[in-house]
Write a structure and sequence with these properties.
The chain is of the alpha+beta class. The protein is built from 7 helices and 20 strands. The strands form 4 sheets. Strands 2-1-8-7-3 form a 5-stranded antiparallel sheet, covered by helices on one side. Strand 11 and strand 12 form a beta hairpin. The chain is globular and about 50 Å long. The structure holds 4'-deoxy-4'-aminopyridoxal-5'-phosphate (PMP).
């Protein structure tokens, strides 16, 4: 198999301290892979987030905080510092010659008998952004269902750690949704309250207020969700409530969208075939996406410290 092709043409990645050809970044097939963690991070072209330019990583510090938290929860020891990982990332982006939006996925794999002995790999690949709201892809219809699978709970497999194992639960929901003819799924938590999407957090809008489930609803502590909660009220005058949301309330929302590094802002057209609100994508969803795009492109001075140049 051509591993480079699997990484969207990124010829090089970083592994265990050096830039190597992706095809040579190998871990033995004899290693068990059930315990391992990762991060999903994006670097955007500054000035024009759909084009080419100098790249800056969004929320590097917050992603590193979570990576170290995930390692602590899973009992793994990180063998490199944040600065070493940042230098590794810079080297691999430079060696690949990337000048447009780049996805970065640091992966930590513990070896069979020793959780203190880990491999660290940083694959990178290019992605197309859904943002800003005028991008035609942003407004594509997206039909979601409420999954019959519940989100993993923190007394069994903690969703707060970004572990590979958690995504087996997501895959069950995605496959069920596809079999049933939907684009994707929304999880309820073990109590029956709304949790999150399969790889992103959920936000709704009701009567002009943003609502989103709390961390105790089995969600990943999302960098994007936390950031939106930081600016929606102060900058866009949209009040936000972090609280439990019932399934019925989802159907009654004026707008529902997912937020996350990968999905950015992903508007949802219908849930269980019940059309969400009157306008798609809704006005708050558009405003948040447009403002977020400006921040990612480095155009909002107030949040420039969120961007780390590559
Ligand atoms: N929930 C899950 C299950 C995810 O995989 C992600 C993507 N990392 C998110 C939420 C959103 O998190 P973030 O905003 O940090 O990307």
């Amino acid at each position: 198999m051509n591993l480079s092709a699997a990484f969207h043409g990124a010829k090089y990645c970083w592994m265990d301290g050096e830039v190597v050809e992706t095809e040579r970044a190998l871990v033995s097939a004899m290693e068990p892979i059930y315990l391992g963690i990762f991060e999903g991070i994006k670097a955007y072209a500054q000035g024009d987030i759909g084009g080419e330019g100098k790249l800056s990583v969004f929320s590097w510090g917050q992603h590193m905080d979570r990576l170290w938290r995930s390692a602590a929860i899973d009992g793994l020891k990180m063998p490199y510092s944040r600065d070493e990982l940042l230098e590794g990332l810079r080297a691999v982006v430079r060696t690949n010659g990337f000048k447009s939006n780049t996805y970065i996925q640091p992966r930590i794999w513990p070896m069979a008998n020793d959780p203190e002995e880990v491999h660290v790999v940083i694959p990178v690949w290019r992605f197309n952004t859904l943002l800003p709201a005028k991008n035609p892809d942003f407004s594509k219809p997206r039909r979601f269902m409420v999954s019959s699978w519940r989100r993993i709970s923190s007394d069994a497999l903690p969703p707060q750690a970004k572990s590979w194992a958690n995504y087996a639960n997501s895959q069950l929901a995605i496959r069920e949704a596809k079999r049933c003819g939907y684009d994707s799924a929304i999880f309820l938590d073990s109590r029956g309250f709304v949790s999150e999407g399969t790889g992103a957090c959920l936000m709704g809008v009701r009567d002009g207020r943003l609502i989103t489930p709390p961390v105790t609803a089995s969600i990943l502590e999302s960098v994007t969700r936390n950031f939106f909660l930081e600016f929606v009220h102060s900058e866009l005058m949209i009040p936000a409530d972090v609280r439990d949301i019932t399934r019925a309330e989802l159907y009654a929302c004026d707008e529902v969208f997912l937020c996350g590094t990968g999905g950015e802002v992903t508007p949802i057209t219908s849930i269980d075939d019940i059309v969400v609100g009157k306008e798609y994508p809704g006005p708050a969803t558009r405003r948040i996406s447009d403002y977020y795009s400006e921040i990612l492109a480095g155009k909002v001075e107030k949040y420039s410290s969120r961007l780390t140049p590559i």
